[in-house]
Amino acid sequence: MKAKNLVIVESPAKAKTISAYLGDDYIVKSSFGHIRDLPKKGLNIDIDNNFAPSYEISEGKQKTVNELKKITSQSSTVWLASDEDREGEAIAWHLAQALSLDTARTKRIVFHEITKTAIENAIKSPRTIDINLVDAQQARRILDRLVGYELSPVLWKKVRTGLSAGRVQSVAVRLIVDREREIKDFSATSSYKVNAVFNAGKDDLPAELNIKLADKTAATNFLKACAGETFTVASVDKKPGSRSPSAPFTTSSLQQEASRRLGFSVKQTMTLAQRLYEKGNITYMRTDSTNLSELALNSAKDYITKQYGANYHKLRHYKTKSAGAQEAHEAIRPTDFNMQEAGDDSGQQSLYRLIWQRALASQMAEAKLDRTEIIINISKRPETFIAKGEVLLFDGFIKVYGGGKDDVIMPSVAVGQKLPLNNLSATESFSRPPARYSEASLVKKLEELGIGRPSTYAPTISTIQTRGYINKSNLEGTPRTLQVLSLKNGQVVEATRQEITGADKNKLLPTDLADIVTDFLVKYFGEILDYDFTAKVEQDFDAIADGKQDWPQTINNFYKNFHPLVEKSDKATRHETSKARLLGNDPSTKLPIYARFGRYGPMIQRGATDSEDKPDFAPMPTGATLENVTLEQALEVFKLPRIVGKTADGQEITANIGRFGPYIKVDKTFVSIKPEDPMTITEAEAIKLYVAKLAKEANKYIARFDSGISVVNGMYGPYITDGKKNAKIPKETDPKSLTEEQCQKMLAEAPAKGKRPFRRFKKK
Predict the structure, then answer these.
(1) Residues 315, 292: contact at Cβ < 8 Å?
(2) How many domains would you assign to the chain?
(3) pLDDT at residue number 755
(4) Residues 471 and 560 in one domain
């Protein structure tokens, strides 16, 4: 019958939440994201026909399309309720196209929060599909397909098979590569910071010299000069201060703060936020707006006034910084300020609490402070000491969002008062290189440059890690000795102390592959990797979304400059991209030794490629890179494999470095020894790792039969295998009870392994 309304959303969780708010006249179904896209194989863009795309029903979505078509035919009205950003608008358009929807009975609705009020208001004010937003999404999709389709094969030929490149991902990799090179080129300089502790009656008064001293000589001379000096209070400046709350979260600021406060990765933050949104707990989480609706402002005011008092509330309107802000029309906030906790697990609960605190704090009064600054003169010196204190008088927003500093209460002193010197010291300090990027700081940088949009940050950062360009690593750092000078009894006493420098946690480090690919792309595709150019492309997408620019013309302007670069890059040679670096000559063979990039990554080569004799190859030494490996290290790896010793039953143990890192081998068993060095690992250490591997292998098999069939404990649960074919074990079946005959039957009934598709590209 045709009495029902069909509401189509992207996700089942969203469908479940919305259906609870609508009556029996509505059926809510999910499209499970996009149902149409460019086919995975081939370009599927008609370059000669205004870049017209050829879409198809996505793999695995035909069943969903058929089901939606059936329900559509039985419904009086179809409501397209995908998200309110460009991606959501494109999903609605693809649904209308794939389902052949009648425009007369199709309505587009949007809402930035999944609440009963928001959904009812959306149904009262439907609109048509915004084709400008659709065109903006299509332009991004088509441009990125063109870049990937034409640029990736270039990398396959010139660098390594299977590589990928992308307009935003390659720029993100370049940022990390450039930063790492800045750090390597950085030369630390030292200076001396002087601290004093004065006697201010009952209390001590710590202070710091107003300048840093250039070197040890200057620091020594200054301390000596202070031996007979008089220290007098020159001024006591007391003035009120304040601290104001930050704006409620945008996508970018949420990713950064969740990383800083909760230790979440960008991908983890977006996954958790998506679930909170679909459950109706928060507003839409892909936004670069800092606005709050009048409803939210009034709700926050009511909660703050009731819980903390009227003096804690202050109405605030925040101006969105991003010139191209377009994703949604409100910041990320809770849908109900009275709900202090939400979420199905600890991750969701922690993120919700952070969002709740930030949004509520944004509507609270500033914290009131009492700041004191004391200037202390030295009788015969131009320098001064400065002592600073801060006392919190009224906590304001800090009551909710925290982050308040501990009070530093200053002792009472008067101008002209003489201060006896208790302690005076000068400690060496070193300038620091630029900080490496974390996921959060990379998001911040991309946003500052205008590259990408809220919906692109998480997938971009995930992609550059999974494809081997970037590693997220912890660096232990190295010890460094600092000079400490102290004035005692009129004499300068020298001492030292240790500090760790270069230690970093969860920072993004480029691989050798990132260096190779970035240098190649900068040389041959400099415009594509230019930060300003990439930001300009984003501005073009914004102009298309605003109806101010034609998308085919935008793509044409890009492609007419891009395609000639692809043709020009064909002149590059493998030797050029291998970044071969001559380390020296092998003393025994007199052959040249190179560090270069090969098919499986960085390696060492002995002998010239153009020589009649085939060169020898060896893996890159453990911990070394193309840029820092030495001749001595390279010569050592040609001694591999190294005999380490023997097992208890007399089998030989050898150590080597392979494609996946250092390992030991006993008969046909390979054991990873990361982070041990194959050149130094001892027999005892190797035996311990080998025994552990055997124990793990023993637990791997639930049952093994003479026919070669095994019941195995896998990563995703037990399964049956004969080495060529795998079969799932039903949940209700105990793997330990299976007989050989049952296993044979399950293998026979299991579908054959699918072949990986081979992607072919047309020659230009």
Answers:
(1) no
(2) 6
(3) 47
(4) yes
Q: Which residues of 576-615 are buried (b: 16+ CB within 10 A; e: fewer)?
A: ebbbbeebeebeeeebbbbbbbbeebbbbbbbeeeeeeeb
Closest CA to 90 of 58, 45, 121, 59: 58
What is the Cα 55 distance to its own chain's centre?
A: 31
pTM over 0.85: no
Question: Are residues 278 and 17 in contact, defined by beta-carbon separation less than 8 angstroms?
Answer: yes
Tokens 């208890």, located at residue: 648
The closest of 133, 555, 129, 536 to 327, measured between CA atoms, is: 133
Non-local CB neighbours of 295 within 8 Å, separated by 6+ positions: none
Domain shared by 77 and 174, yes or no: no
Is 716 catalytic? The answer is: no
> What letter represents residue 336's amino acid?
D
Distances (CA, A) of 47 to 142, 385, 560: 10, 70, 11
Asked if residue 564 and residue 592 are part of one domain, the reply reads: no
345-359 pLDDT, tens digit per residue, is 999 999 999 999 999
Pair 209, 229: CB distance under 8 Å: no
488 and 566 co-located in one domain: yes
Residues 562 and 646 in one domain: no
CA distance 436 to 208: 29
Q: What is d(CA 617, CA 597) in angstroms, rounded to the nearest whole number?
A: 11
Q: What's the one-letter identity of residue 343?
A: G
Which one of the listed residues 26, 284, 308, 312 is annotated catalytic? 284
Check if the beta carbon of residue 227 is closer than 8 Å to that of residue 487: yes
Q: Is there a single domain that holds both residue 182 and residue 296?
A: no
In whole angstroms, give the CA distance from residue 668 to residue 375.
74
Question: How far does CA 312 lie from the centroid of its chain?
Answer: 36
Q: Which residue has the tokens 């929060």?
A: 113
Model confidence pLDDT, tens digit, residues 92-105 = 999 999 999 988 88
DSSP 485: E
Strand, coil or helix: 243:
strand
CA distance 207 to 408: 12
